[in-house]
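> example.struct
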């Protein structure tokens, strides 16, 4: 393999039939410049595959070995939550998919090189993982510092400053067992901040904020809090 090809092997040994099928698919996608409905459908399929693979490798710790094989060793956190891991997986797969598409546009994948399209894509996700993890770690540290400042500032904020105090308390109670960053995201969203503003405030990426909001809003909706708020 060359330096541009992934060394992970997630598929069975490639048969002639498989290589031919991948080559034909790549040619069809290339004719549309890897865009349009067919590409979107294929990209969605790849994203599901990538999320499943990285999630499994995170649970087993195999992601660290995969990163080492690519010359990008990582130190995995010991205190991250399942939500934290899922956010990182989403980011790594999104970045890996973007890199994978560029590689195809540049003609860097070849059916004769041995790796299937899915294996090549998985390698892109693995190579994206270390940078995503480092960015997440930096964001986490910045957020911890911001949370300390908020804690100090809140001591002097009168209760009247919150327009919907009861709803805020209900939301905080519901999220009592959630990660601190999730609480901060929901609080800012509740107070009217947009995703981009929340991301900038908490030093997160917009994608990570959106993932937190989706999970937390689903939980809030099931608890009836969103409906309660809208009826006030």
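> example.seq
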């Amino acid at each position: 393999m060359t330096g541009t090809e992934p060394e992970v092997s997630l598929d069975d040994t490639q048969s002639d039939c498989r290589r031919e099928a991948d080559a034909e698919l790549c040619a069809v996608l290339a004719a549309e410049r890897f865009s349009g409905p067919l590409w979107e459908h294929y990209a969605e399929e790849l994203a599901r595959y990538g999320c499943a693979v990285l999630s499994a490798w995170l649970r087993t710790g195999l992601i660290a070995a995969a990163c080492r094989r690519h010359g990008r060793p990582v130190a995995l956190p010991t205190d991250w939550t399942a939500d934290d891991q899922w956010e990182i997986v989403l980011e790594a797969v999104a970045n890996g998919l973007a890199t994978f598409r560029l590689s195809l546009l540049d003609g860097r994948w070849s059916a004769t090189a041995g790796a299937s399209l899915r294996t090549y894509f998985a390698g892109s996700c693995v190579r994206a993982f270390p940078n995503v993890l480092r960015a997440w770690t930096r964001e986490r540290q910045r957020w911890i510092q911001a949370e300390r400042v908020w804690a100090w500032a809140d001591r002097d904020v009168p209760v009247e400053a919150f327009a919907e105090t009861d709803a805020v308390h209900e939301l905080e109670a519901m999220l009592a067992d959630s990660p601190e960053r999730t609480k901060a995201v929901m609080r800012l969203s509740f107070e009217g901040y947009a995703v981009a503003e929340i991301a900038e405030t908490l030093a997160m990426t917009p994608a990570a904020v959106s993932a937190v909001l989706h999970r937390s809003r689903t939980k809030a909706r099931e608890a009836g809090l969103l409906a309660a708020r809208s009826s006030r």
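> remarks
Confidence is low (pLDDT under 50) at residues 1-14, 157-164, 226-232.
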